[in-house]
Specification:
The protein has 7 helices and 14 strands. It is of the alpha+beta class and 286 residues long. The strands form 3 sheets. A 7-stranded mixed beta sheet has the order 1-2-5-9-8-7-6. Strands 13-12-11-10-14 form a 5-stranded antiparallel beta sheet. Helix 4 packs across helix 6 and helix 4 crosses helix 7. The radius of gyration is 20 Å and the shape is globular.
Amino acid sequence: MKAPLYYAIACVERREKEGSMTEPKWIRRLRFNLSRLGLFKGHLHYYTTVASTQSEAARLASKGAEEGTLVVAGKQLEGKGRCGRRWRSDAGGLWMSLVLKPKSLTGGSHLITLLASLSVVRSLDRFSFDDVSIEWPNDVLIGVSKVAGLLSEAVFVGSELEYIVLGIGINVNNPIEGFQSDFMRNATSLRESSGSISKLDEVAYTVLGNLEGVYLEAQRHGLVKLISDVKGRTSTIGKDIVLTIGGKELHVKAVDLLPDGRLVVKGEKSDSQNILPEDIERLRRG
């Protein structure tokens, strides 16, 4: 005997309510606030703990997930960084990955990373953090300390771009004491920098709102102005840096950022070179 329709509906509504109660309040607030956006509204997948938001977003994208699908985790066990490095992702930070399917952007996925970096910088400006800048190719600094890292991974079918998974990791309220022992030396967090706790949903919504704005602007009007804005916030330019390329260190000075996102560097006794992010294993200040 089939259950009455009203009973089935009541069961579904109860399960949905019970499921929502398992999410932290900040995720429920973020889910509600994302409905105000256009491209990035809805499609939020939350996990208390996940191996990697980047891997999970890629899995969803490979199964046809819509553009704007967002994966957020309270904690990552195997957070991804550049060149296969691990990103430490303890509870209290903001760990998220976004599925993007740009139709009119030309250039490599590193341009998405730079646009996302600009979005994070502008967001931290709104929260009144001082001395926020981009460290080419994929970090955001407060002063000289790393507060956020970004990673774009593109998937092609033949020569056609299928999707990009953009990962954004921001040290918000997570402890940073143990960072001195791994590759995230000189790290900081929003809490460490401000002395107060930040609301994760407000940080996430502000970043995603800014990102949606620059992403749509890039597709409608091109990258020239946006990359100029990125250049204006890139503290790497004018600094002596050490690039690791093919396992060897190259001591150079960063002198410019080109419209295609390449960093122009010059050695003391060598001609200038135009460097793509995929050319290097590591960059550090000289």
